[in-house]
Every structure is written in C-alpha cells, then in structure tokens.
Amino acid sequence: MSDLVLHSETLSHHGSEKGTWMRFFLQPKDLASSSFCGAEFDRRAGEFFSAVMPEIINFYDIHEELIALIEAFRIGVNNGTFYTVDARGSSRFDRSLEIRIRNLVKDFFIRGKVTLMSFANSGLLEDEANGFSFKRFYFCNEKKFTTITAEYGNLTDSRYLPIINLMGRANGAFLGDFNKIRGAIEHELFRLDKFTLLAGAASPTIVEPKLNGVDLSEALTHFYESILDFIEKTTAYFFGIMGELKSPWHQLHVRHDFNYSKSYYKYIFSLGGMPIGGGDTTRCLFD
C-alpha cells in the first residue's frame, strides 16, 4: 500500500496579533454602541465591512511580506544564500529576491491607494444632514480643500472640523508624498535604485535604496502606519464627536495601554469621567 500523502493550506493570519479587526471594525462599532449610535453605525457599516476591511487586510499582508523579504535578502547575502565567493575569488550575487521586492513595492502603493479610496467611498463618515461629507474633502485638490474647509468652518454647526483639520495635516505629513509616488508608478515614472552590495570579506551585507530620503523599509513602514492611523483616527473622531453630542455624559478618551489583541481599544468613551472598560486614559482633544 502506498503511503498516504496529506496536503494542508494556511491562509494569512490577517494581522490577528495586531488586532486588525478589533482596531478598524469592532472599535468604532463599540464606540457607536457606547454612545447610543449603534444603529447609525450598523446602517453605514455594510460597505466598510465588505469593501474596506479586505483592503486593509491586504495592505497589512503586503507590508509584512515586504519587510520580511528585505530582511531575508539581507540575511541571505550574509550567510551565502545570495552572495558567494569561490576559492579563486570569483563572486556570484543573486538579485532574484530583489526583483520580487521591487515589484511588491509597486503593489504596496497601488493597494494603499485602493485602501484609502475604498475607505473614503464607503459612506461610513458621511453626515450630509449636518453638512459634512468625508469624501467631498478627500477627493479634491489642495486649493479646493482650502476653500471648502473655510466655508465649512464658517457654518453655525462645524462639529466635524477636527476631522477636516486632521485631513489637512495628513496631506502635509504623508498623503501628498504617497500620492506622488503612486502617480509616478501609474505613469511608469517610478524609479527605485538597486540594493547596494557591501562585499566585505568578513560579513557581506546590503544597503537598502532610499525612498523619500530614508531607507526603503523605513519609508514603507512610515506610509503604512500613517495610513492606518489616519483611517483609525478619523473613524474614532467621527463617532466620538457624534457620541459626545448625543450624550453630555460621554467624552472620548485615548487609552495609553491599548492592546487590540486583548480588545483594549485605543479610543474609548468615559461615562461621567470614568473610562468605560478602565485603563490609563486621557481626554481626547481631537487634535
């Protein structure tokens, strides 16, 4: 009888140890439920759940793979997997992994843009009854953004101005640079230098190419973390503002000992000054 051959497959962990679902879906749902806005969240959440969450998960996976590949390339050069020198002094440098990295960098910016656009189009942060449309502010150039921000600030009820100001700061901090790189990729103008081989006799290694003036892995992590922080913060601010207006007893707090894998959310409400669920918190200033 022939041996039984088994086959198993494993899907991505989808950022479970970093609490992706807790951070981006269950946290705002809990904020909404804690401030009597649960029905409002449920009404809006369908598109976010089906279209945005898969993109966030995909973006997470691409970033994790890129950082792992860069480190694997570094280790492989050092241990002889990708760089060798024979007895006669002839060397061989295998750059095949670098090609995967370069292609995945392009995918990173493409999926990051799709994540942001899906988020803006999801309808989760729309309150047109009170004169606010997140996507109206997101999908506009700098000149129009300045104009409509001033117009909104002059309204009698400008409750969501902290979110608009956050969007303006994000444009200067990372979104502008991110979109420029994404545009260059789209028009095939993006260029990334090669990894540099430092073939020292004792310990050969590589030097990462620069992106926006810093090492590639550092730049990628900066964009990745900034985009996810932007999505989390704008969502928390939206339901935080809505909750505070619905109940004078509710205040949005920031929890400093947050841990998504343990359901210790970063943004929680306090009730009468006491944080719901406890923890080390301070009042959210919406800044």
Structural account:
With 287 residues, this protein is of the alpha+beta class. It has one domain (22-283). It is 55% helix and 13% strand. The chain contains seven helices and twelve strands. The protein has helices spanning 20-34, 38-79, 96-121, 134-138, 142-153, 161-186, 216-246; strands spanning 83-85, 91-93, 126-127, 132-133, 196-198, 205-207, 210-211, 214-215, 250-255, 267-271, 274-275, 281-283. The strands form five sheets. It has a four-stranded antiparallel beta sheet. Strand 3 and strand 4 (132-133) form a beta hairpin. Helix 1 (20-34) runs antiparallel to helix 2, helix 2 runs antiparallel to helix 7 (216-246) and helix 5 packs antiparallel against helix 6 (161-186). The longest helix has 42 residues, at 38-79. The radius of gyration is 23 Å and the shape is elongated. The termini are far apart. Residues 1-11 have low confidence and may be disordered.
Descriptive keywords:
single chain, 287 residues, alpha+beta, 4-stranded antiparallel β-sheet, two-stranded antiparallel sheet, 7 helices, 55% helix, 13% strand, disordered N terminus
